[in-house]
From TrEMBL:
The lineage of its organism: Bacteria, Bacillati, Actinomycetota, Actinomycetes, Kitasatosporales. It comes from the Bacteria. Keywords: Plasmid. This is Uncharacterized protein.
Amino acid sequence: MTTLEYLSTIDSLAVQPFPEVTYVDASGEGGPEHHVRVLQVSRDFWDDDDGQAWVEAEAELRASLDGLAARLTDRWGSAFVVDLGPYLSASCEGESVPEPLDYLSQQAVSMQVWPLPDNDRWLGLALGQADKELPLILFAAVGRAPALDLNAGGRS
């Protein structure tokens, strides 16, 4: 996909009603308070003995993430970074973690977040990998503002 196609997907997610029930399909997952879309996926790394394929894939997906983030920053101002580690720790300790933070924390260590204007949603971009042999994935997520405890300044 191109940056313009990513932006089209993000624009659709930003206004799309949240589903009443949780679902998972080939494009991502969602539920009553969120949407997650897979924007780009690398190859897997089962046979990447020297790590070179991972380095190349990470550079490619990072470039996609950086280009998309620049376009979103032009639209909505600077993003802030959310550390997903505390959400993963809370989930592992049996605490309830709102989606999509629970899902994303199992895939990525952080995400860039933009509060969406004129509604109570935010958009996040994250680059993640569930395990070292599995593909790298560029995610776009939309969630309700309370999931991140956004205050009026747009910070968590």
